[in-house]
Write a structure and sequence with these properties.
The protein has about 725 residues and is an alpha+beta fold. The strands form 8 sheets. Strands 1, 2, 3, 4, 5, 6, 7, 8 and 9 form a 9-stranded mixed sheet that branches.
């Protein structure tokens, strides 16, 4: 099969899909006869081209009209004709919905391409036909319910014809597709979820499609045409000023086709949705109340029982019923946030993928996959669009492998945290990779440093490794350096992604159990275990002096503490078992380095107040399960235990820690900060009774309803 040559400058303005269609028309053998078919009451004409073992069926003039979304079907020929051998495919491209080509193809109306018995047509359509849509960027394939192997075979067939990777997008985020393309390092080819309102609006605009009438729908990846209230309201204007166009639209909604199938508003598509769905209507009110009203109006107009003048008040009543049936009044306004967000979830199929209840957006909710590489036999085939930062990451992972170890896949993601940053420019990336020596994948975090320059990079690494030596739960950090082509040398660090959940975004069900008598209740042991881990993290935060001078606040409880869960034999369930500090920022941040009791008192006041505030907020969420005194006791136990461990590590090698003087630029004042931190750690141990007294006082003085958390834990893991 011939591959398409690179696009010339003259052709660059034509979308790739239509350049491909024109190439087929130019080089393939056209079948002499043209086929006409009526679909939905509208005539269509089709032409076919044989190109090697494959056949392409195009609706006439589709290459000239170029609709915003053209329907695509891809199916192996062997599934259309019994006993046929070979590897050829049939690809159709039509306007309107997918049934425009599907019905005549399966019924044998398209030349000799299809001979599927009626009893098997539904099975063939759902199991072997891959649906898609031509869009500006290429083609979006939808898995729906077909096997992932069928989808991937169609994907590979398109690539064999010269379609580049980035022009074939997997539109439906089905679990099997996600898993399969991750194993190829190609998760970026699965259509990503929008992050900003602008991205959602762009997706909504791209999904807008007509079938045959003047009505415009939002076409979802599940094949459902969503009809908004505002678009339905246009029928009133059509009825008043263009009655012919109004009747065409009414036919499109509720006129049964000639082949004994139900009308579009009753034709099942996905779950309880239909070919055309009234968007936002509560429960079964659409199919049970409003659709019958539309059908009755259509019948009465067709029989003459309703005149054109009588139609308008009846249509107004139907429109009013539609408005009152909306789940939320905001869904009547297509510019409202609730409309855009809700339609977007339906378009992408996310509405069917239940999400866990969580307090704040978590890390994995904001990841977008980036082009990287596919590994075959351990060797990389780099994807188009992989940037220099990604290439450096791939090189880093490759260099960390042991002898005989090879990469099976790598997927690279960027964390979306800023509406104004374009994709590829964010500070945080995640690397998910697997090798032939690992039964499960490993995940790393790569993050750009807050400041440029080698000196700051060294200062960051020194802080991590110095406190690691003391026993602080920082993970290993590896520095990377490269030029970004603009500002010179840029530094990043790579570390392991810590297993667990950022404090502040832990789902409430992590603290719940089912009781035979009372149903789902808070589990006190889980709540208290986490209180102890908070005390552990607080002791470490005080020891490293995590503080934001510019904000004049202690960095604690803002999602930088990663809580690990593990199986507890005694309780036979998952429980909080460990805590990691995932952010170095703010380490050695306490601004006053005088080794005086007055400075120490100010320091201890600031930290213990922050700790008490976080604990009381956490306790208030679980006050039914545990008392404040119980939560306080477990917190103090964790705080005391962690402090003792850190102090023991220090005293066991006091000379080495006191003499530590790394080659760090003096402007960072590392040695003075380090000596203050060691001196304060000793006081943290020896003045423990005073610290606990401070904590108890703040805990009592704080209001019963603490202020809302300022957690921004979406940037952590």
């Amino acid at each position: 099969m011939c591959r398409l040559p690179p696009a010339t400058h003259a052709m660059s303005t034509t979308p790739f899909a239509y350049r491909f269609i024109n190439r087929v028309r130019l080089e393939a053998r056209i079948r002499e006869e043209m086929v006409a078919h009526i679909s939905g009451g509208h005539p269509h004409q089709f032409v076919a081209y044989d190109w090697g073992p494959d056949t392409f069926v195009f609706e006439r003039d589709i290459w000239r009209l170029r609709p915003q979304r053209a329907s695509v079907l891809i199916v192996p020929k062997t599934r259309l004709v019994k006993g046929m051998s070979g590897s050829g495919y049939v690809m159709t491209v039509t306007s309107g919905n997918h049934s425009v080509a599907a019905i005549p193809l399966l019924n044998g109306k398209f030349w000799n391409l299809g001979q599927v018995p009626k009893r098997r047509q539904s099975e063939v359509m759902t199991s072997w036909v891959v649906c898609g849509n031509l869009v500006d960027s290429g083609v979006e394939l939808s898995q729906r319910v077909v096997d992932i192997r069928v989808l991937h075979a169609a994907d590979e067939w398109l690539h064999s014809l010269g379609w580049p990777l980035h022009t074939v997008v997997i539109a439906d985020r089905v679990d099997t597709a996600m898993e399969f393309y991750r194993s190829l390092g190609q998760e970026w080819r699965i259509k990503p979820l929008a992050w900003t309102r602008d991205e959602m609006e762009l997706a909504l605009r791209a999904s807008r499609a007509r079938i045959q009438s003047a009505l415009v729908y939002y076409h979802s990846v599940k094949g459902v045409h969503l009809l908004s209230f505002s678009e339905f309201s246009r029928l009133t204007d059509l009825a008043a000023h263009d009655f012919t166009a109004f009747m065409v639209a009414l036919d499109e909604l509720v006129k049964p086709p000639e082949n004994d199938r139900p009308c579009a508003m009753r034709d099942p598509r996905f779950r309880n949705h239909h070919e055309i769905e009234l968007f936002g209507v509560h429960g079964d009110k659409g199919i049970g109340q409003i659709v019958p009203m539309i059908e009755q109006l259509h019948r009465d107009l067709a029989s003459g029982a309703c005149t054109r003048d009588d139609c308008l008040p009846r249509l107004a009543r139907i429109t009013n019923a539609f408005r009152h049936a909306l789940e939320n009044p905001g869904l009547a306004d297509e510019q409202s946030d609730i409309f855009i967000g809700s339609v977007y979830k339906h378009l992408t199929g996310e509405i069917y993928r239940g999400t866990q209840d969580q307090i704040a957006p978590a890390f994995d909710d904001r990841k977008t996959a980036l082009p990287g590489a596919t590994y075959i036999g351990g060797k990389a085939e780099t994807h188009p669009g992989a940037d220099n930062r990604t290439l450096a990451i791939l090189n880093y992972v490759q260099n960390q492998l042991s002898h005989g170890e090879r990469i099976e896949y790598i997927n690279i993601y960027e964390l979306r945290t800023d509406d104004h940053l374009p994709l590829g420019k964010g500070p945080t990336r995640e690397i998910d990779f697997k090798t032939n020596r690992r039964p499960v994948g490993m995940r790393l975090i790569e993050k750009s440093l807050a400041q440029h320059g080698t000196d700051y990079a060294n200062y960051t690494l020194v802080r991590v490794q110095a406190f690691q030596s003391l026993g602080v739960a920082y993970g290993d950090h590896h520095l990377l350096s490269r030029h970004d082509g603009q500002s010179g040398e840029v530094h990043y660090f790579v570390r392991q992604r810590y297993a667990g959940h950022a404090f502040g975004s832990i789902s409430p069900n992590r603290f719940q159990r089912t009781d035979c008598e009372h149903g789902v209740i808070d589990f006190p042991e889980a709540v208290l275990a986490l209180a102890a881990l908070l005390g552990n993290a607080a002791a470490q935060s005080l020891a490293v002096k995590r503080y934001a001078p510019s904000e004049r606040r202690v960095r604690f409880g803002d999602g930088r503490e990663i809580i690990e869960f593990g199986f507890n034999v005694k309780h036979r369930s998952e429980m909080p078992v460990g805590v990691r500090l995932c952010s170095v920022r703010g380490t050695l941040g306490w601004p006053d380095l005088d080794q005086t009791q007055e400075n120490l008192d100010n320091c201890f006041d600031a930290y213990m107040l922050a700790f008490a505030t976080v604990l009381k907020a956490f306790w208030s969420e679980h006050s039914v399960a545990v008392t404040l005194r119980e939560a306080r006791d477990y917190f103090i136990d964790g705080f005391v235990e962690s402090t003792r461990a850190l102090y023991w590590n220090y005293t066991s090698r006091r000379e080495a820690f006191d003499a530590f003087d790394p080659d760090v630029r003096r402007t960072f004042r590392f040695q003075k900060k380090w000596r203050f931190a060691l001196w304060a750690l000793e006081k943290q141990q020896t003045q423990m009774p005073e610290l606990i007294e401070r904590f108890d006082r703040f805990l009592q003085e704080l209001p019963e309803t603490p202020p809302a958390s300022t957690s921004d834990n979406h940037d952590n893991a």
